[in-house]
Design brief:
The chain is mainly alpha-helical. 54% of the residues lie in helices and 0% in strands. It contains four helices and no strands. The protein is globular and about 35 Å long. The chain starts with a helix and ends in a 5-residue tail after the last helix.
């Protein structure tokens, strides 16, 4: 999977040493077991997050942030 390899390389940079990285796809797979797929729209809709305007950069970033916040509420132990 290209994004993971890319992120691994970027996150090895000393500039990112102060930040933790969370993969909302993996967190979703570990937390939610009752959905048909793990596309951003499917996961967000399942959690009641508005997906109007999905596939626009700013909207996707906001949806991902809300998704992360919902996963924290669910209590995933890795967060």
């Amino acid at each position: 999977m290209v994004p993971s390899k890319f992120l691994t390389g970027v996150c090895d940079s000393p500039h990112y040493a102060l930040y933790r990285v969370f993969d909302t796809l993996n967190l979703s797979r570990k937390t939610i077991h009752t959905i048909e797929n793990y596309r951003l729209k499917t996961i967000a809709s399942h959690l009641g997050i508005n997906t109007t305007g999905i596939h626009r950069a700013e909207t996707d970033a906001n949806i991902t942030m809300k998704l992360f916040e919902e996963l924290k509420k669910i209590g995933n132990s890795e967060i």
